[in-house]
Write a structure and sequence with these properties.
three-stranded mixed sheet; lyase; binds nicotinamide-adenine-dinucleotide; 2 domains; NAD(P)-bd_dom_sf; Rossmann fold; dTDP-glucose 4,6-dehydratase; dTDP_Gluc_deHydtase; 18% strand; alpha/beta; 12 strands; dTDP-glucose 4,6-dehydratase activity; UDP-galactose 4-epimerase, domain 1
């Protein structure tokens, strides 16, 4: 087996930590360097089970800092870039840090990747860059039409990543995935937020009518898609990663209420999010034709996720303080 050296940015976050765990299990010979600033979303405990592995290295650093980035970039062949400010509601309060990390940080990484002749650069992005889909599903050819400062900063970083391929030939692939759920997701995001509030005996706040639609994917399926694209993706290409599970926020809420033995009275309808996209929907046909599709059944994965939060209160409770 080849010994591959990979930089993962944002590896202490929700998806990054699941990705590192997934890759080290599947490819025990890979060497992974995790560059993470440990922002508010940090949770060192996310990787506690692997922190002593000899082929895993953690570096605390900012992707906006060229010196920190260059130092790690000289040691690797491939980059999987997850690091980002990721919470839409926070971006509505103040978009500045989103522009700094998601746009400037991505550019810093791309510059360094080019200088260090990186062989593959996966830029991890989101379905939110396409904006709301009133009907049909977006393909990779559709225009970008982001609504929030978060999705606008991600769309900007997608364009930068693409430009480094077009202009300099940097071997970049861009992935756009739907809403993830699973273990180690910061408890400000819908599913862990609702589970934790219901466990605390509190009501769950549902925006507007609750009829907004999201497509959901279990985090391990997202990790396997990124792995697939690392090995099979073509430079300069964009790949949608869809979960095939479009549900209204109310449908998700009802499932969670049932799992936690609660009823309608635990729902509190609150004022809608500003600029709230009605529906996200991706056409995942391109990846499917190449041979990848999600493996997890939604309801089973949601039940597993619920059990994980019920059993791992020690992990999320301190993050809510
Ligand atoms: P997260 O907020 O849980 O993790 C982000 C990580 O990036 C954190 O560990 C944080 O410390 C780190 N980070 C932030 N700023 C940094 C900086 N300046 N330098 C170095 N590290 C920094 O986010 P997540 O949900 O794991 O999302 C990861 C990526 O996947 C993001 O790019 C996001 O846009 C994308 N994505 C997320 C979802 C989802 O549903 N969560 C869906 C599609 C795409």
């Amino acid at each position: 087996m080849t010994e591959l050296k990979m930089l993962v940015t944002g590896g202490c976050g929700f998806i990054g930590s699941n990705f590192i765990r997934y890759m080290l299990k599947k490819y025990p010979d890979y060497q992974i360097v995790n560059l993470d600033k440990l922002t508010y979303a940090e949770n060192f405990a996310n990787l506690r089970d692997i922190e002593n592995k000899p082929n895993y290295f953690f570096v605390k650093g900012d992707i906006c800092d060229p010196a920190s980035v260059n130092e790690v970039m000289t040691k690797v062949d491939q980059v999987v870039h997850f690091a980002a400010e990721s919470h839409v509601d926070r971006s509505i309060e103040d978009g500045s840090v989103f522009v700094r990390t998601n746009v400037l940080g991505t550019n810093t990484l791309l510059q360094s990747a080019l200088a260090n002749k990186i062989k593959k650069f996966i830029h991890v992005s989101t379905d939110e860059v396409y904006g709301s889909a009133m009907e049909g599903s977006f393909t990779e050819m559709d225009n970008l039409n982001p609504s929030s400062p978060y999705s606008s900063s991600k769309a900007s970083s997608d364009l930068l990543a693409k430009s480094y391929h077009t202009t300099y030939g940097l071997p970049v692939c861009i992935t756009r995935c739907t809403n993830n759920f699973g273990p180690y997701q910061y408890p400000e995001k819908l599913i862990p937020f609702f589970i934790s509030r219901l466990m605390e005996g509190k009501k769950v706040p549902v925006y507007g009518t609750g009829l907004n639609i999201r497509d959901w994917i279990y985090v391990e399926d997202h990790c396997s898609a990124v792995d697939f694209i690392l090995h099979n993706g073509k430079s300069g290409e964009i790949y949608n990663i869809d979960g095939g599970n479009e549900l209204t926020n109310l449908e998700i809420t009802h499932r969670l209420l049932k799992m936690l033995g609660k009823d309608e009275s635990s729902i509190e309808y609150v004022e809608d999010r500003k600029g709230h996209d009605f529906r996200y929907s991706l056409d995942g046909g391109k990846l499917e034709k190449m041979g990848w599709k999600p493996q997890y059944d939604f309801d089973t994965a949601l039940e597993q996720t619920d059990s994980w939060y019920v059993e791992n209160k020690w992990w999320w409770e301190p993050l809510k303080r």
